[in-house]
# Entry
Amino acid sequence: MINEDYRGTLKWSRNKQAVFTVIWISFLCAAVGTMVFFALFDPVDLSGIFDEDLDIDRDAGYAAGFFFFWILLLVCGGLTAFLVRTAPKRHAKHHGKQD
Amino acid sequence: MNKPQPASLYESEKKIYPREMGGRFDTLSKIATTTLLGLFYVVPWLTWDDRQAILFDLPARKFYLLGLTLWPQDFPYLALLLVIAALSLFFFTALAGRLWCGFACPQTVWTEAFIWMEQITEGTRSQRMKLDKAPWSFNKFRRKASKQFLWVTFSLWTGFTFVGFFAPIRELGHELLTFNAGGWQWFWALFYGFATYGNAGYMREQVCKYMCPYARFQSAMFDKDTLIISYDEKRGEPRGGRKRSVDPKVAGLGDCIDCSLCVQVCPTGIDIRDGLQYECIACAACIDACDSVMDKMSYPRGLIRYTTEHALQNEQTHVIRPRMLVYAALLLVLIGSLVTSMALRTPIILDVIRDRNALYRELPNDIIENSYTIKLINQTNDAREFRLRVTGVDGIHLDGITDTFTIAGGGVLSVPVRARVHRGNARGVAKIDFIAEALDDSGDMRIEDSRFLGPTP
# Structure
């Protein structure tokens, strides 16, 4: 018999799984989104749209774009995970096993 | 032996202490890790024509790849490259399972490096487990502190190298050392360093188990001919301990001596003998472990081995099969089109924007005039002479730009020009072509269409 110490019993709670998965996946998607977006638009050109006097350099523009995407996707992923996980379950009586 | 833990909704966390084990696949993995990390840390320091060989110069919006300079307008190449990368991943997964996970994924590669540092400072697997259980002492503090020192230093260097792909690394290093670097450079270096530290130092296999999309859908690429790491149940069972001198057949045992080494070496902490599991990243550490035991017992190697489901069922394995042919054909077409389009790439970019404020202007002597803004980019690294022409309407000619002009290497010419046509030829909307040609032997030219508006007849 195997000593249980050897086994990978390291398991994340469902909440921890959801939180880290949402953070990580939104991070990856934000990276792709930033790349595509700024390949098409130059942050220096964009800054003029919002405010003529807004003197923003490209580094700051890229960073702002990245965090915009990341936060947006965090909200999207977080709400999706929350709604899926807290959805009312079908009643066991009518539909057999409850998961 | 531990008592079985009571089942709880949120299972407690138990750290995995992968055991170190030499062998064929360990050597392969070390070669892969060293090569990939070597590339990552060395490449930014290479120079080509007096500038960094690989530099994604985001502030200047130019990518330097050896002798090639790519502009944002070349983005389709990057997109195509990413599609090719994804398809290659599918191809190799169908062929040989999770090769990517076991040998090439940054998560695996950096985890290997972090585990290596852990071994240097905290010792072997059993020493590490003992150390973690032991109360705090000077020795424990010393070992933990030196591990953290190595981890943190390595992470910071990793973050610095990462930013070095986007800003000239030599200047960046100097700026960081003298605290003159920009805020964003500091931020990204620390951000990437911290992500490396967290992912490779602490999260490790959890990233693969819970956070990686590829790990979840890779099984869709599997079929019965895909190479997998598998325990030969028919040969191994019934498992059990025995002395070397005992003949397993006489004792009614299979070849598995139940030494549990395959479980101890597993970085994701699974038991490969339970069958193929989605946690398995195909690092092949268990093959090395089992082979070493088989050697000691003088049994043939391969109780755990790379095999296919068909082979395990004593059936023929087909390497060439429709799935592989489809992936291969798609890959060839895409790679072919990337190479062709790169080879035929004209290093001139011409943008024509028609002035939207006025339809047209009437000049004296029955001349109709339209205004445009021309943006001409010389994508090569040397100065070139160009000529700009316009065609499409009889007698159309340009005003506001000299006959020929020179643009510096990597330079942009942005200039308002006016196209003029005699009233007799300017009727309604006409399609016109702006032609920019390089005045050298290359024959490089770029055509961009626009419209010329005249009075409605």
About this structure: Chain A touches chain B at residues 1-15, 17, 20-21, 24-25, 35-36, 38-40, 42, 57-60, 62-63 (CB under 8 Å). The helical segments of chain A are 14-40, 43-50, 58-86, 92-95. The first helix of chain A runs from residue 14 to 40. Residues 27-85 of chain A form one domain.
